[in-house]
Amino acid sequence: MIYKDRTKPIPERVEHLLGLMTLEEKAGQLVQPFGWQTYEHINGEIRLTEAFKKQIEQAGVGSLYGVLRADPWTGVTLESGLSPREGAEAVNTIQRYAIENSRLGIPILIGEECSHGHMAIGATVFPVPLSLGSTWNVDLYREMCRVVGRETRSQGGAVTYSPVLDVVRDPRWGRTEECFGEDAHLISEMAVASVEGLQGEKLDGEDSVAATLKHFVGYGSSEGGRNAGPVHMGRRELLEVDLLPFRKAVEAGAASIMPAYNEIDGVPCTTNQELLEDVLRNDWGFDGMVITDCGAIDMLASGHDVAADGRDAAIQAIRAGIDMEMSGEMFGKHLVEAVHAGQLEEEVLDRAVRRVLTLKFRLGLFESPYADPDRAEQVIGSAEHVELARKLAGEGIVLLKNEGVLPLAPGAGKIAVIGPNADVGYNQLGDYTSPQPRDKVTTVLGGIRTKLADTPEQVLYAPGCRIKGDSREGFEFALSTAEQADTVVMVVGGSSARDFGEGSIDLKTGASKVTGNSESDMDCGEGIDRLSLSLSGVQLELIQEIHKLGKPLVVVYINGRPIAEPWIDEHADAILEAWYPGQEGGHAVADILFGDVNPSGRLTVSIPKHVGQLPVYYNGKRSRGKRYLEADSQPRYPFGFGLSYTEFTYDKLSVSSDSIHKNEEVQVRVEVKNTGQRAGAEVVQLYVTDVASTVTRPGKELKGFRKVFLQPGETQTVEFTVGPEQLQYIGANYEPVVEPGEFQVHVGKHVNELLSANFIVRED
Fold first, then answer.
1. Based on the structure, what is the number of domains in the chain?
2. Pair (455, 585) in one structural domain
3. Same domain, 358 and 404
4. Which of the residues are catalytic?
5. CB-side exposure of 720: number of CA atoms within 13 Å?
């Protein structure tokens, strides 16, 4: 059997296997049912369901989604879920049955969510991507992705539905937390690191999983910040901004890609042949697998309404370039019948099956389909991985304001830790996180108590209020607690914890739904889009009441989107933006509060003064205007901004040549000095301005960055290369062009605090 011979080239093995398959077996390879529905976990024993067994014996299953996932959508809880060892054993039980009870013994592709850690019980929970972007530390993020690949593959997961490469344009969007930020260059750097980390040197390695780039494309630019809403975007912006991170990740070797739910100019991404075939495959040379988002094909007939029914939707999708359907309902019901009815050519089906089988062979699933439970137990949640989670959380926290109160001195008296996010571990984990044991997650209260373990009487606590709702019943206790303290640390923000009530889950996609459930604190995450960027509930009122006590006030935000609260910006003595910092977030916040870690996080999204300023992303066009009647158009905190416990100065910006040809490069150098009393890390940022261009351009565009660590008094020369890639844009004919003329380079702390120099680009 050629397809079982590992010495044969993969294309030869694929064609041989494809030639042996029936029509029904081919269609079976293109469906991905929900993995948690294939088994029952009873008294520690894994039993496969009869429905799954029947599906295997009839035509087989190409892939399973979320075998190891646990959350309210799956109905899998801490009590009923699988430990790291049990997860590996469950995958082995599923694989063994599929291989031994199907005609051709084709292994199943196990797909799992890994946006900021393997979404399984016991796996390491890292900070959300918005926090990871705020580290500006590409190497550290790549290391994290290696860990995520290791943990996932150890349990048998072979493909992950990450990274999320959407460019944030309206932070009211609930999925902002899943993104790296508002800048395509920074996202591209993280995208390449993600692919390199997750996939490793070879896909069939024991630590490697196939990366799936999502959501292709424009998903972060939806109308009104509403999830999956229409996208109004010109072709030039699409090519230049939103497609850039995907192109870079494809060039890095990404094995899979997922189209977005949204439409662009009236065409749903799920059936956009121009994007899926012309751009992705023909222009970029992508040779991997394309899988839909959950329920996306059904949405063509019931949502976009571009298909008459499910069969029409399935035919349109596979013709456009879809290879596999997450959930598998439309492909499973209609593809075989469509071929029999003469509505779909079998060679179109073969094209998709060929891509699915190729990925399975590349992953080595035919040779090594089974997980190692001993290894899973050893690597998942290891001490080394936990320490990495803490370091990433610390580097992703942004110090927005500090009027001399931070860092706190350990002997500075009593500290009152107050707020709804002070001691609720699940609230700091973010969306796409499985429930974790309580003792695995360190809250801010826990982190501060650990710092002051020798004097526990120094730490006081009161929740004060919930994230949402108008109850003030906790105010009195919070105020009396704060009165006893010398310093108050308010831990407020949002929640993406999927602990919502019955009926608030979209059963097709797993996204949450906005309901009247008063017990739910979820105000962020997939499907939770907001009108406002203010704090939910009565949190602001609680802070204002405590401020009246006259105590030093430190505000810690734990949240998944920017918060615009002018009163807090003006009245708090210090503000930390921690995003959702993951399981070690409490330790990381405490490390910064007490000065054991010098904050080095920098914003990757602009934070507006008021929601009425949106859109407020830094690289808008120069023609967009300066102000409103009530205020200027500048954000409260600009892109790239973040404070430190030390000071950095910039000097001696130079460009190696004042004139180059358009195919040449210049070296840009600047001296950065730590002029303060503490060691610290600075994010040195390079921006480029095309002074005059045929097509309108942004005022500044990020084109490079370096995170450098400097001791007090130390100076380092930081160098950037600026050439055609940094100077080009999508020109009048929709092709990349470097136009002759004057350019400016800017280097500095953030987009509004920069040194500048000019040079000329000449015609060849």
1. 3
2. yes
3. no
4. 293
5. 25
